[in-house]
Amino acid sequence: PFFATFVRIQDDRGHSVVSSGPYALVRHPGYSGVLLSHLVLPFALGSIWALLPAAVGTAFFVARTLREDRTLRDHLVGYREYQARVRWRLLPGVW
Fold first, then answer.
1. What pTM was computed for the model?
2. pLDDT higher than 50, residue 1
């Protein structure tokens, strides 16, 4: 499943590093898409108050990417090299 609640290496399914497509630009493109929707939501709703849940969601995904990168680096063969090639976690040129 996508966006599982915990990070685990699926050796039984041949879990390997993907470095093509959007993964060639950022290490967590799915999270990048969700964060983009968080930024657009206040404008779509016409309410500045929608920034509050967007801020909470952003903090969650930042923490999640840090934890996920650490787990994958330590347990997934090739991820350390992938991190060296793809520097950005969520937004190219920023972070």
1. 0.82
2. no
